[in-house]
């Protein structure tokens, strides 16, 4: 690596780079497959299409403002033709944010005009291309789809607005027809081709193959949209980047149709921390944004959700907690810390607790326990925790007081100054 190159990095980047090198000496490769990755957030569009979820105007504005401040490349704000309220929300977000704002449109004139009228910077238009959707959802022939798609792409391009086209259900579309559609819209002036795994059937290697093939048929930039029906959405999005996609569509907490989309927090942090590449996203806002979306969407985040779950940076078992207290890289990824996502590490006391956690917590709440006292209180904690009960600080204090553990202040008054 050139010295001049290192100088250009911010202190933050240098710190991260060092950590990556420090903790990646293992069995996995450490050179990055790509250097940068763009983030297209669809929390307000596909995310809002989660069953039983709808964002009000204020929710949309609040979430868009946070995404804008964090530096996402595109915010898909909604589906302007849907309703007057939706049109107004999309329009206001387009006016009040600095980043690129995108509106969705079917390959229908009214949809495209509504999207253009809303003042968005990008129109995302889509048409079904798989046989099953052509026949039983869109009720159109292959030829009609190409004709309508080309017309809509041309209309948006003529208006001087960025245009993205999605062959919906691309991963279940006949290969030859897919390339035919892609070549037709490319010729019509499309800026972005989005490859959607609409029903979540892709696997990382197969999806990467598809993206490589698509790239051979267009000069447009490639975007990917993946669904989590088999828990592969984030892995598939990352496979897309590895295969040369410029951008991935994600939603905060992974909300979206059915099992949802690739999660914003998973894709961003994997790109930043595991690949050591750059999304340009300010990652320290992730935890707060995730809590906001959890609350506004009404979709609870599971405790074991990656990065944003309550347990993501929590430790209970004695061996793990003792290691993490000494060096967090022992039983955390090492390349990702809670601070990087605006979260806090937590040591939970319970059945699996060891003495290190108990000693640490006792000191934090003001005690100066001896080793014997720590062992005694740990026994109490484990016994109490074994019956599925939570060890609150109040409970810990009661255990400590029962066994006559001295508080730090008492010892300071008795002992020599330090
Ligand atoms: Mn979708």
What can you tell me about this protein's structure?
There is one protein chain. 45% of the residues lie in helices and 12% in strands. It has 418 residues and is α/β, with parallel strands linked by helices. Helix 9 (204-215) links the parallel strand 6 (192-197) and strand 7. It is elongated, with a radius of gyration of 26 Å. The protein binds manganese (II) ion.
> How would you describe the shape?
elongated
Largest sheet: 8 strands, parallel, barrel
Ligand names: manganese (II) ion
**How would you write the strand order of the largest sheet?**
1-2-3-4-5-6-7-8
| Count of domain modules | 2
β-sheet strand percentage:
5-15%
Cα radius of gyration in angstroms: 26 Å
Q: Could you tell me the number of beta strands? A: 10
Helix content: 40-55%
Overall mean confidence score, pLDDT: 92
Structure class: alpha/beta
Encode the helix/strand succession as letters. HHEHEHEHEHHEHEHEHEHHEHEHHHH
CATH class of the largest domain: Alpha Beta
What's the name of the CATH homologous superfamily of the largest domain? Aldolase class I
- DSSP helical segment count: 17
Sequence-ordered SSE layout with sheet pairings:
Blueprint: H1 3-8, H2 11-23, E1 38-41, H3 57-70, E2 74-78, H4 84-96, E3 100-106, H5 109-117, E4 122-128, H6 131-138, H7 142-158, E5 162-168, H8 175-187, E6 192-197, H9 204-215, E7 221-226, H10 233-242, E8 247-250, H11 264-274, H12 286-297, E9 314-315, H13 318-326, E10 346-347, H14 355-364, H15 371-386, H16 393-402, H17 408-414
Parallel strand pairs: 1-2, 1-8, 2-3, 3-4, 4-5, 5-6, 6-7, 7-8, 9-10
Helix pairs in contact: 3-4, 3-12, 7-8, 9-10, 10-11, 14-15
Bound molecules: manganese (II) ion.
């Amino acid at each position: 690596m050139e010295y001049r190159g290192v100088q250009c990095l911010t202190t933050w980047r240098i710190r991260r780079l060092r950590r990556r090198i420090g903790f990646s000496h293992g069995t996995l490769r450490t050179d990055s497959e790509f250097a940068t990755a763009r983030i297209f957030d669809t929390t307000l569009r596909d995310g809002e299409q989660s069953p039983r979820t709808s964002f009000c105007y204020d929710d949309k504005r609040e979430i868009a403002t946070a995404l804008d401040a964090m530096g996402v490349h595109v915010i898909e704000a909604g589906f302007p033709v849907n309703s007057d309220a939706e049109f107004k929300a999309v329009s206001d977000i387009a006016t009040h944010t600095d980043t690129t704002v995108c509106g969705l449109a079917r390959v229908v004139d009214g949809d495209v005009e509504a999207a253009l009228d809303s003042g968005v910077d990008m129109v995302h238009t889509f048409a079904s291309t798989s046989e099953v959707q052509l026949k039983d959802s869109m009720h159109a022939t292959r030829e009609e789809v190409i004709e309508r798609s080309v017309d809509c792409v041309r209309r948006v391009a003529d208006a001087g607005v960025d245009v993205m086209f999605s062959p919906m259900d691309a991963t279940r579309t006949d290969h030859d027809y897919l390339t035919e559609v892609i070549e037709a819209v490319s010729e019509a002036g499309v800026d972005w081709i989005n490859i959607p795994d609409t029903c979540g059937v892709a696997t990382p290697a197969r999806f990467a193959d598809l993206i490589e093939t698509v790239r051979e048929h267009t000069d447009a930039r490639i975007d990917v949209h993946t669904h989590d029906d088999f828990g592969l959405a984030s892995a598939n999005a990352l496979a897309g980047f590895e295969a040369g996609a410029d951008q991935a569509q994600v939603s905060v907490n992974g909300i979206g149709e059915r099992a949802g989309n690739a999660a914003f927090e998973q894709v961003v942090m994997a790109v930043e921390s595991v690949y050591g590449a750059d999304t340009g996203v300010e990652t320290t806002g992730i935890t707060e944004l995730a809590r906001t979306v959890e609350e506004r969407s009404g979709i609870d985040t599971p405790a074991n959700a990656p990065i944003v779950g309550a347990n993501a940076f929590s430790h209970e078992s004695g061996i793990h907690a003792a290691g993490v207290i000494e060096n967090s890289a022992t039983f955390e990824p090492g390349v990702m810390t809670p601070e990087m996502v605006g979260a806090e590490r937590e040591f939970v006391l319970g059945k699996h607790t060891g003495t290190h956690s108990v000693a640490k917590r006792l000191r934090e709440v003001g005690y100066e326990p001896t080793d014997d006292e720590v062992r005694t209180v740990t026994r109490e904690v484990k016994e109490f925790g074994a019956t599925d009960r939570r060890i609150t600080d109040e409970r810990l204090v009661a255990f400590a007081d029962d066994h006559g553990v001295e508080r730090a202040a008492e010892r300071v008054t008795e002992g020599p100054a330090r």
